[in-house]
């Protein structure tokens, strides 16, 4: 399957990206409830469409993975937490494209963008049950760390998450 990873076009793709993000959050929240009995959400699903506007800011970037038929099969973003530090946000690949290295390609594009943004450090968080994502992050030089300033995960939910960081200077280029 041919996949192209490129910058999102919010003027024409916002609805399709929102659908991907709602699918991602709905699935993750269901799994969070089933795995840990948690019904609280760190993200308001109803506000996802409006939150995309934030990615028009030059301190942020949003990318999509597009299949040969033109459909979006993945999404991933970066936001600046502080000068030199960026965070991976909303990385998601549709279930039917998992195992096809779409997530790897999205993450590699984010790491390239982080270098272009002159970020020294890339951070991210992931729910503990997302083992495939954790393997991908570790394969790209991310190491576990404590929760960081700027995470969107509220303190009472942080026990269910793993936090990662990658030093761009010491990690090999992907």
Tell me what the structure shows.
- The chain has 174 residues and is of the alpha+beta class.
- The chain has a domain at 3-120: Aminopeptidase (3-Layer(aba) Sandwich), CATH 3.40.630.30.
- Helices cover 32% and strands 29% of the residues.
- The protein contains 4 helices and 7 strands.
- It has helices at 10-36, 48-51, 102-116, 131-139, and strands spanning 3-7, 60-67, 72-82, 85-93, 121-127, 143-145, 161-167.
- A 7-stranded mixed β-sheet has the order 1-2-3-4-5-7-6, sandwiched between helices.
- Helix 3 links the parallel strand 4 (85-93) and strand 5 (121-127).
- The longest helix is centred in the N-terminal third of the chain and has 27 residues, at 10-36.
- The protein is globular.
- The model has no long low-confidence stretch (mean pLDDT 93).
DSSP helical segment count: 4
Strand/helix succession: EHHEEEHEHEE
Intertermini distance? 21 Å
CATH class of the domain at 3-120: Alpha Beta
CATH hierarchy: architecture of the domain at 3-120: 3-Layer(aba) Sandwich
Query: What form results from the Cα inertia axes?
Result: globular
**Cα-based radius of gyration, to the nearest Å:** 15 Å
User: What does the average pLDDT come to?
Assistant: 93
What share of the residues does DSSP label as strand, in percent? 25-35%
Percent helix range: 25-40%
Largest sheet: 7 strands, mixed
- Physical arrangement of strands within the biggest beta sheet: 1-2-3-4-5-7-6
User: How many β-strands, per DSSP?
Assistant: 7
Unreliable sequence segments: none
* CATH topology (fold) name of the domain at 3-120: Aminopeptidase
Main structural class: alpha+beta
**CATH superfamily annotation of the domain at 3-120:** Gcn5-related N-acetyltransferase (GNAT)
């Amino acid at each position: 399957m041919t996949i192209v990873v490129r910058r999102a076009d919010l003027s024409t793709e916002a609805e399709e990206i929102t659908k991907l993000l709602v699918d991602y959050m709905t699935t993750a929240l269901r799994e969070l409830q089933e795995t840990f009995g948690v019904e609280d959400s760190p993200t308001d699903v109803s506000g996802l469409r409006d939150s995309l506007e934030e990615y028009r800011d030059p301190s942020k970037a949003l990318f999509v993975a597009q299949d040969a038929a033109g459909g979006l099969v993945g999404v991933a973003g970066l936001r600046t937490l502080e000068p030199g530090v960026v965070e991976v946000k909303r990385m998601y690949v549709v279930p039917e494209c998992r195992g096809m290295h779409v997530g790897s390609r999205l993450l590699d594009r984010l790491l390239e963008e982080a270098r272009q943004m002159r970020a020294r450090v890339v951070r991210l968080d992931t729910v503990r049950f997302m083992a495939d994502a954790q393997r991908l992050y570790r394969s790209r030089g991310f190491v576990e760390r404590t929760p960081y300033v700027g995470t969107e995960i509220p303190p009472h939910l942080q026990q269910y998450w793993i936090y990662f960081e990658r030093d761009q200077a010491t990690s090999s280029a992907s």
